[in-house]
Design goal:
Elements (H helix, E strand, L loop, with lengths): L7 H6 L1 H34 L3 H16 L2 H11 L9 H26 L3 H9 L4 H31 L12 H12 L2 H31 L2
Helix pairs in contact: 2-3, 2-5, 2-7, 2-8, 2-9, 3-5, 4-5, 5-7, 6-7, 7-9, 8-9
């Protein structure tokens, strides 16, 4: 049981490859957040529009994203759409699945943030002659983003960790994919995945600390 011989040198020599994979991981997570925020704003507006069709669509998206496994969402993007002749690359499938998940969670965060903004803000803007869309864009949205900023940071961390699911659809250029390939060639499972876990941890902590620094700098008043 305790006769395992650690070979850290072999794993450390592959560190540059793993760091290259970490950059791809960050790229996917950042892109998924940009797409997720844009879609989440639309979903939030749909839910506030009073249109039953748009509101129902937004609610269905949020419920599916929040109450089904992220792995299922990535599988549907990669294998499910393939049944209809839509074939996506592993990178695109992973990005689409994570962005779908981000949009659902962020839309709910934005909805909660809007509840924290007094209705008097909108009424005051309308009394100044602003149209409803302008009042939402210039008065409500900035406050919504301020309230939802730190919860959105948690979603960013979750997006980084979700990228590791890409190995299930053949993704081999991110951190998890490269780690899996290195492990398959050397069978040094503990060493490679321990280093990968440390890299994921450091990325997540860096994102969290950076977000708190930005929040303190921009939203302290």
């Amino acid at each position: 049981m305790f006769n395992y011989n650690f070979r850290w040198n072999q794993a450390l020599n592959a560190l540059p490859q793993m760091l290259d994979g970490a950059l791809v991981t960050l790229q996917i997570a950042l892109l998924s957040m940009v797409i997720g925020v844009a879609v989440a704003v639309l979903l939030t507006m749909f839910r506030l529009s009073g249109n039953r069709i748009l509101g129902g669509f937004a609610t269905a998206w949020v419920e599916l994203a929040r109450n089904t496994p992220a792995l299922f969402q990535i599988y549907m993007a990669h294998f499910g759409l393939g049944a209809f002749g839509i074939h996506l690359s592993p990178f695109t499938s992973l990005l689409a699945g994570i962005a779908f998940n981000n949009a659902g969670y962020l839309a709910e965060n934005f909805r909660g943030a809007l509840k924290a903004i007094p209705d008097t803000q909108t009424r005051a803007a309308r009394s100044l002659g602003m149209p409803a869309t302008q009042a939402f864009r210039l008065i409500v949205m900035p406050q919504m983003f301020r309230v939802a900023f730190l919860p959105a940071t948690n979603q960013m961390v979750w997006a980084i960790l979700m990228t590791s699911l890409g190995v299930t659809v053949g993704m081999n250029t991110d951190l998890a994919g490269i780690t899996q390939e290195l492990n398959a060639r050397s069978f040094r499972t503990f060493e490679f995945f321990a280093i990968a876990a440390v890299i994921y941890y450091l990325i997540a902590k860096a994102v969290t600390l950076a977000a708190h620094a930005v929040a303190w700098r921009m939203f302290r008043y």
